[in-house]
Description:
- By secondary structure, this protein is an alpha+beta fold.
- It is about 45% helix and about 10% strand.
- The chain contains six helices and five strands.
- A three-stranded antiparallel sheet has the order 1-2-3.
- It is flat and about 45 Å long.
Amino acid sequence: MDIKSIRKNMAAVDGGAWVSKAQAKVLGDMRVKVRGMGGEVARDLYAEKCRKETDLTPGGDITARASTRIMRQVIAEHCLMEIEGLTDGGKPVTAEDLRPVLASPAYEPLCDMLVVAVAYVDGITDEKAAVVEKN
């Protein structure tokens, strides 16, 4: 086994990569450029938000509800870079349009789609990146 087949491609995780339905069927006709959660900036942002969280269990742990909310905030503020193929009444929706609303439960289905895209980027290995670069 070559190490490139298991080593995470940090250029994609930190710098972002385009994900479409070819990589994540849940995206349908959308295409998104996202960073992974496995990068230092995303991890630091998540940890910072966790330290400030007040929605805790009696044992002092962050509740599942708070963890989900924080994940959505990190996706909105850091991971989501660009989006194509999403409209609102025919008008294209941008990543900037989505940032203020992604933490809302009303946008949970969209955020779930982005979670799949972010997970895909976190799973890009050096070997996968080399194949994509050739094509």
